[in-house]
Amino acid sequence: MASEQFNSPLRPHVWNSKRQWTRPELDQEREEFFDTRVTGRQEIWGTLKMAVSLLADGQVQNAQGILDASGVTIPTGDLANGAYDEMGNLYQLPEQVISDPVNIVLVSQDIAAGKTEGAKTGEETDEDEVERRREEKGKGVLKSGDSVKVRARLSDRGGPDVTVMLGKEQNVRVTGNGKVKIAYLGKILKDGETLQAQGWREGHVVNALVFQ
């Protein structure tokens, strides 16, 4: 049995880079890094990827929550110094994967994206509401052959996993005014698509992330 690892509260990693990084370069670097891990456990790398994404959005508490739910500890609180799983295995991430440097180089696409983000958010919200109403109208009784058992691990509590029955063609949909998200292998699943369409395999555990 692995000994208990010392853990410190997660904090953002702040750094200056000698190299000039642009947004597309950093995005590609992170994607390639997580796609090419061959050591350690895949689900832990997925958790670390999600934590990095949440940190980029300033959601430190939510990132801490998913790390705790997966049993990941960070002795110094800084991912740049390494993270450990419950078995004591070390996971190391380079700085450019953990966070943007303070001297990141902004290109014209970044500036344009910032100007249009607000307008897109409103449009997407309207489309989501229309899709939600359509789905509600199409609900029916599940037949035994059309359903699967899905085991979910909640991030806000310990204890046993929760098992629910879902239709094979039932789209991902959660309640709680956006305070609950479903994640699988380090990715937040999209509403409006089935679990299987997003890569989930029967028998695998999903994470129910409860945001405070």
Radius of gyration: 19 Å
Pattern of helices and strands: HHHEEHHEEEEE
DSSP strand content: 5-15%
- Biggest beta sheet attributes: 5 strands, mixed
The portion of residues assigned to helices is 25-40%
Count of strand segments: 7
The first-to-last residue Cα distance is: 32 Å
> Order of strands side by side in the largest beta sheet?
4-3-7-5-6
What is the residue-mean pLDDT, rounded to a whole number?
78
Regarding quaternary structure, how should these chains be classified? single chain
Category by helix and strand content: alpha+beta
Shape: globular
Task: Provide structural commentary.
The chain has 212 residues and is α+β, with helices and mostly antiparallel strands. Helices cover 34% and strands 15% of the residues. It contains 5 helices and 7 strands. The chain has helices at residues 23-35, 42-56, 60-69, 95-98, 108-137, and strands spanning 83-84, 90-91, 147-154, 162-167, 180-184, 187-188, 205-210. It has a 5-stranded mixed beta sheet. Strands 1-2 form a two-stranded antiparallel ribbon. Strand 1 and strand 2 (90-91) form a beta hairpin. Helix 2 runs antiparallel to helix 3. It is globular, with a radius of gyration of 19 Å. The two termini are 32 Å apart.
